[in-house]
Amino acid sequence: MSVVATKQEVVDKYLRLYKNNIDEINTYGADFLNNKRQEAFDEFKEKGFPHKKNERYKYTFLQPFFEYDYKSNFSPNTYQVNLDEIFKCDIPELDTYTVLTLNGNYYTRNNPAESLPKNVVVTSMQEASQKYPELLKKHFDKYAQKHEEGLVAFNTMFSQDGIFVHVPKNVVLDKPLQIINVALSERDLLINHRNLIVMDENSQANIVVCDHTLCFRRYLTNSVTEFYLGDNANLEYNKIQNENNESIQIGHTYVHQEQNSYSRFNTITLHGGLVRNNLNIRLLGENAESQAQGLFLTDRKQHVDNYTNIEHVKPHCQSTQLYKGILDDQATGAFNGKIHVYPDAQKTVAYQTNNNIQLTDDAKMHSKPTLEIYADDVKCSHGATSGQLDEKAMFYLRSRGIKYEEARFLLLYAFADEIISKISVEPLQMRIHELVDRRLRGELSRCHNCQITCD
C-alpha cells in the first residue's frame, strides 16, 4: 500500500478495476443495479473519495484505507456454508426470521419465505429485479444521494446483490427479521452490498442486523441501505456491529418517511477497526417521528464516527437523537449530527444529544452537533459532553465498599444502559447487555453466536 498515493491515483485505480471487470459485474449483478452503473461511474469519477476538507468527513479520512490491495469477488460465492453452523443463537427466546448475506451477496440457502406472513417478501436484490420490477422502479436509488456522496456512487458501481424486503399494506411482522452480514475470505476483501426495505402504509416491522467478520482478515465494507416508510408505517431497526480490529465498515442509510410514520434506529458498535455510520432521515409527511440512538465502545486504536442528518421538511414532525461513546486507550471517535428544519416545517420538535466518556488522556472525541433552522415556530435543542467518569459517583460507590474496578464497571454500564434499554425486543436487549458487560470488563468481545474457529 502506498502512503503517498494521491487522491486521483486511488480513484483511477478503482475506475480501472470497474472497466476491467464490467462484464462479470453485470453478468452476476441485479438488473436494476446494472442499469445505474454508468451514471454512478461518472459521479464517482467526478467526486472520488471524501477529503478531510469535506465537513462531513472532517474527523475521518477514508482514502488511505482504499489504497490497500483488496481482493474483489465479482462471481458468486464459492464458500459452501451452513447457516446453522455459522449462527447458533445462545438465547432460545430470540425467535426471528433469519437470513444471511455472505460477502455482500444474499446466501442461496436462505429460505425464510416458508414461514413469513402472507405476501411479505424477503429475498435478494437479484431476484427482486426479476419478480418485483415495479417496486424497484418506484423506490430503488430514489433516496440514496449518490450525486452528493462519492462513496454511494462507488457502491452503485460495484454492488451486485443484497437484501430486498417488502412489507405490504396493513401487515405486521409477528417477530423480528434478523439479517446476518458475514464476511468470510481467505484474503483481504472489498465488499459492496445494496439493500432496499419498503414498508407500505400501516405496516409494522422490527429488523435486527448483525455484522460479523469470520477469520482475521482485513475487510472493507461499503454498504448502502434505502428505506421507504409509507403512511402510518412503524419500524424499529437495530444494528449490531461486532467485527475484527482490521475491519473497515462504512454504512450509508437513507430513510424516506411519509405522514404519521415512525422509525427508531438503534446502532450498537461493539467492535471494529474503523466504523463510519451515515444516517440520513427525511421526514416528508406531517406528524412523522424518528428516534436515532447510538452506542459505541472503543479501545486500542479503534475509530468510530457517527454522522446523522435529520431533515424536517413538513410541519408537526418530531425527532430525537441520543448518541453515546466510551473510549479507552488511544481510541478516537466522532459525532457529527445535524437537524435541518425547512421553512414550511413549523411546529417541529427536535432534540440532539451526544455524551461521551474518555477513560484515558490519550482517547480523543470530536463532537459537532448542529442546527440549521429556517422556520420560526419550533422547539429544537442540541448539546454535547465529553469527559472522565463522575468522581463524586465513584467516591460514593467506593465509600460503600465497592472495589475500584467494579465501581468503574457499574458507572459505565449505567451510562450504556440508557441506549440499550431502548431496544424493544427483550431477548435481544438482554443479549446486548451481556455483550456490553463482557466488552466493558475487557473480556473477549466476539459474539457467542459465532461457532466457527478460524486459523
Write the layout of secondary structure elements.
Blueprint: H1 7-27, H2 31-34, H3 37-47, H4 63-66, H5 83-86, E1 97-102, E2 105-106, E3 121-124, H6 125-131, H7 133-139, H8 150-158, E4 163-167, E5 177-184, E6 189-199, E7 204-214, E8 219-229, E9 234-242, E10 248-257, E11 262-271, E12 274-283, E13 289-298, E14 303-312, E15 318-327, E16 332-341, E17 348-358, E18 364-373, E19 378-387, H9 391-399, H10 404-420, H11 426-440
Parallel strand pairs: 1-5, 4-6, 5-7, 6-8, 7-9, 8-10, 9-11, 10-12, 11-13, 12-14, 13-15, 14-16, 15-17, 16-18, 17-19
Antiparallel strand pairs: 1-2, 3-4
State the main characteristics:
about 450 residues, alpha/beta, ten-stranded mixed β-sheet, nine-stranded mixed β-sheet, globular, disordered C terminus
Give the structure's gist in a few sentences.
With 455 residues, the protein is an alpha/beta fold.
Mean pLDDT across the residues is 90
Shape: globular
Task: Return the string of H and E elements.
Answer: HHHHHEEEHHHEEEEEEEEEEEEEEEEHHH
Poorly predicted sequence stretches spanning 5 or more consecutive residues:
445-455
User: Reading side by side through the largest sheet, how are the strands ordered?
Assistant: 2-1-5-7-9-11-13-15-17-19
Distance between the termini: 24 Å
Strand content: 35-45%
